[in-house]
């Protein structure tokens, strides 16, 4: 029975970002918080994905680590495999393949035990406005429509953006996702009839024929189970990833040799820089709704948690200042951009660069080590391309032409130089992210100009 429909904070969505924000806010125990989700307790964090997350996120953000049966596999490294599969880069680092439902349930239950109210199996229909101000949300509960009022409204509903998409178009948070800036993914968790040789190593395969504009993955979940899937760039007319999986991947020996499919599913994943602003007057977008995802590999759980962390800081500041407006929430933007948004924006350029390469060019880059394991690690952690990689590529490509007298590689070299130049420009732009909303318009124009010029140059 609903006793009170008025809250300090309303969170629409209880996935990784929504549950994490509820957890952070519950630690204060001074806010009245409600979380709404169409899923039940038994199906929390049910979105299909690779289920991988770096261990460092938990220490950096102060989130309890997965434990016990919440961990399906401890990860010690990732192998990136060339289209020909003749070259393999291995990058070492600690992480987990988690049982999303079990870990998500514990995180949200901790928040509920601390006073957060959770409304499962409820459908958020959209925002409620009063006197042109966002005042709450409209929710369908047991075939009845109710309105819930909140001082701050948070959209954690993923790419659907159930609240965000109905906000005034002049609000910077209402920006729409271009389908080309997303991946459409499909994955299966399968029981295998063989023992995996290196269960702690995740494998990412680059292959434009199998996964155009994306990649396919093989993530062990123990010694005889694996999370296997692929993502393809959206908006390009590519085949449905499920069909590609069935027609190509399922015929590979390591995938064909399976006992059963434990679960399957697909989802859309944003693969671009974050929203230019995650906040506006008494509104915050987090997780996929804020495009908080690594643009290169599509990993979203860590980014979702980071967006939730900075949302909690913005909410605390707003209540301390006594007014939940864009100015008092702005530290959410500044904190997120400094911690991960700068890297994310640079990696968006890397994603665009990779999507324009042929398998031949990808093989060439990896075989000749124009970009090696160290450079890949830099791209993953810092969003930078080491200048030495560019210098090295000049000599390699020059020598290559002397021997083979080919004419296609100078364009690849120019693309690499262009990528390095524009990644630095984007990093500099994000390092100058405005400290207040007043500078947002001019900053957005600068970023848009960088993107426009980059696209023009790599196309040329």
Automatic annotation (TrEMBL):
InterPro entries documented for this protein: DGGGPL_red, FAD/NAD-bd_sf, Geranylgeranyl_Rdtase_fam, Geranylgeranyl_reductase, GGR_cat
One GO-annotated biological process of the protein: phospholipid biosynthetic process
Top-rank taxon, per record: Archaea
Keywords on record: FAD, Flavoprotein, Lipid biosynthesis, Lipid metabolism, Oxidoreductase, Phospholipid biosynthesis, Phospholipid metabolism
Organism: Fervidicoccus fontis (strain DSM 19380 / JCM 18336 / VKM B-2539 / Kam940)
Pfam name, any one: GGR_cat
Designated name of the protein: Putative Dehydrogenase
GO molecular function annotations of the record: oxidoreductase activity, acting on the CH-CH group of donors, NAD or NADP as acceptor
Family matches, as SUPFAM superfamilies: FAD/NAD(P)-binding domain (SSF51905)
Domain Digeranylgeranylglycerophospholipid reductase catalytic: 181-269
